[in-house]
Amino acid sequence: MSPATATSLHLLLTAPGGEVTVPPWMREWSPKTIAGNRVGTLRRLPDITVVDAPEPSSVLKSERFLSTLAARHAKTPGPSKVLFVFRHRKAPTDVGQLEQLLGFFDRFRDVEFARGADQAAFALQESWAKLRRDQTAEEPVLRDPFAELTTGLALTADLRAASGRLSAEKVAGCFGLSVAELARLLGRSRQAVSKTDDAESSQRELAPFERIARLRAALPGAAFSSWLNAGNELLDDETPLARIRAGAAGEVADLADDMLSGAPG
Amino acid sequence: MRRRLQRCVPLLDFLRGAPPSFLYTSGRAGRCNPAGVECLYFSESEAVAAEEYRLAWRGTPAEHQPKLTFQARVNLRQVLDLAQTPTLEALGLTSADLAVSWRGKPLTRLQAIGRAVSRQKPIAAIRYPSFAARKKGVAGWNVAIFPEAIEAPDSVEILGTSGVPLAVLS
Q1: Quick one: pLDDT at residue A152?
Q2: Could you tell me which CATH number the domain at A3-137 has?
Q3: Which residues, in sequence order, are CB contacts of B70 under 8 Å at separation 6+?
Q4: Cross-chain Cβ contact A233/B52 below 8 Å
Q5: How far is A253 from chain B (nearest CA, A)?
Q6: Model pTM?
Q7: ipTM score here?
Q8: Digits of tens for pLDDT over chain B (170 positions)?
Q9: How far away is chain A from the Cα of B155, in angstroms, using its nearest Cα?
């Protein structure tokens, strides 16, 4: 896999200390750079963070840099690799030093090492391939515990168009959203939603709204709207509608499923 | 752990007529599991289950509507008991980690531990404090069971009203 095909890779280059220079082997990857003493300003790490250093011993001397990097790595959800590249290609490696480096990281299996430009380029490709594989293999397949029940009992039949598919306009009405606002949440234009409000391409994005709307079985009429607009302790006192407007309808749908299935929160 | 666990659900017509499988796991994230890790949640007592129910439905008409309590009979050889201070210390967990808000958040420490538990045997569950009970100012415990970590003789049985198992996980 070449850098040209890795367009969605978020890559960061750093080095202990106050300066960082992109080494020749890495230029074609166009990494973002950040000086080691600025790593603490990052909220999280990208897909791959490359640490450029002469030797393991030189990194170990920068304990504060390592601790900060490891802390940011620990706070980074999902796959994130850290690749240490040591410039001296033929220097002997002290396994104890590598182990010491790994000791800083909670998720030490995400940490890789390479020596010299050739190894580094290959290790970067390997890390990128593993990330891609992770994203494919570990993407959760979430199932819907009430789908069959509700299909039969038509709990959400009023949200569907004559085609049987979910209607964006009906969903918008149920949630007190404007069609334009729902269109934005669906990543579509107002015009596109109005033209085909039950578009096949919107069904996946509309599915969380249907899961939430099932709460109407227990919260009929205005009670559902009241729930949508009331601060909720299980959502950090935000209202469900605020979360939905923030693009997190899936989170609210999960909460609705938990409420109906009685799963403790 | 050999005991009966509880869970409260709304007494709705559509649940009463054709209840979902209560051994069903969706792979949704929960307090002790990240998305993609199967997990079943129960409370240790009916009082705690009722408190969980009340918190979920607080401020709505459903809070005081009739609810259905169902029971699971569990036989689990090993459970990670977060009531034990040495266990918390060994895992580097604080009481704040156990009550942290998790919906829509990055992986929590408790979820990371749950994922690790799901990938091994024979520890099949985590006993952790009920957030709802804590909010009420009382002690109460829930149990998160990881089906992938269960192997015989571990078992989870959902009990019908007569006490006969309706569904068994083993």
Answers
A1: 45
A2: 3.40.50.300
A3: B6, B7, B9, B22, B158, B159
A4: no
A5: 10
A6: 0.66
A7: 0.91
A8: 999 999 998 877 555 555 556 676 778 899 999 988 989 999 999 999 999 999 999 999 999 888 888 889 999 999 999 999 999 999 999 999 999 999 988 899 999 999 999 988 889 999 999 999 999 999 999 999 999 898 889 999 888 767 777 777 87
A9: 19
CB contact under 8 A, B18 and A152: yes
| Residue corresponding to tokens 């992109």 | A22
Nearest to A155 among B14, B22, B130 (CB): B14
- Do residue A260 and residue B10 have CB atoms under 8 angstroms apart? yes
Strands (E), chain A: 11-15, 32-35, 48-53, 81-86, 111-115
Contact A40, A67 (CB under 8 A): no
Compare CB distances from A234 to B20, B61, B103 and report the shortest one's residue: B103
The full DSSP string for B105-138 is SSPPHHHHHHHHHHTSSSEEEEEEE-HHHHHHTS
At residue A3, does pLDDT exceed 60? Answer: no
Query: What is the Cα Rg of chain B in Å?
Result: 16
21-80 in chain A: CB under 8 A from chain B: 44, 75-78
* Option in B28, B30, B57 nearest A259 (CB): B57
In chain B, domain spans: 2-169
